[in-house]
Amino acid sequence: MDKVDEIIIESLLKNARTSKVELARRLKITEAAIRKRLKKLESYGIILGYKAIVDYQKIGYTASLTGIDTVPEKLWKVIEKLKMFNEIKSVMLTSGDHMILAEIVTDKIDKLGEVHRRIEELDGVVRVCPAILIKSIK
C-alpha cells in the first residue's frame, strides 16, 4: 500500500461508482495502472467488494445492525455460517460491546425476527442483540 492506493480507497469510500478513468485522471496515471492497483487491492482482501448504500425504509424493507456474541472457540465457525445467510449484507468482527456485528436486511419485519432466531440457534451463539434501523442518515 502506498499513497496512491490510499487515495484510490478514499475515493471509492466516498463513491464506489467512481470510474477508473476518473481515478486515473485525478492521480495522473493510466487507467491500466488503476486496474492493476484495484486488482491487487482486491486480491489482498483490502477491497472486499463494492455496494450501494440504500435507505431501506424508503423501499419498505426492514434492517438491523445486530450484535452477536459467541463462545470464543466457535467464533470463526459462527462467522462462516453467518456469511451464508442471504439476508446478512455484512459481517464485521468488533472489539466493542459484541464480538460480531451483522447488517441484516429483509423485506418484512417478521422475516427479520426469523433471521434473528436462526442466528440464535447456531452452535456457539450465546447472545443476539438486534438494533432495528429507524432511518438511514448517511
Overall pLDDT level: 94
Query: Percent of residues in helical segments?
Result: 25-40%
Q: Structural class of the secondary elements?
A: alpha+beta
Shape verdict: globular
Side-by-side strand order of the widest sheet = 2-3-1-4
Calculate the terminal CA-CA distance, rounded to whole Å: 28 Å
- The count of helical stretches stands at 5
The amount of beta strand, in percent, is: 15-25%
The main pleated sheet reads as: 4 strands, antiparallel
Q: What is the name of the CATH topology of the largest domain?
A: Alpha-Beta Plaits
Spell the H/E element sequence.
HHHEHEEHE
Number-wise, the strands total 4
- The CATH homologous superfamily name of the largest domain equals Lrp/AsnC effector binding domain/regulation of amino acid metabolism (RAM) domain
Can you tell me the number of structural domains? 2
- Low-confidence runs (pLDDT<50, min 5 residues)? none
Rg, nearest Å:
18 Å
3D structure, described in words:
- It is a single chain.
- By secondary structure, the protein is an alpha+beta fold.
- It folds into 2 domains: 3-43, Arc Repressor Mutant, subunit A; 56-132, 2-Layer Sandwich (Alpha-Beta Plaits).
- 38% of the residues lie in helices and 22% in strands.
- β2 and β3 form a beta hairpin.
- α2 packs across α3 (31-43).
- The protein is globular and about 50 Å long.
- The protein starts with a helix and ends in a 6-residue tail after the last strand.
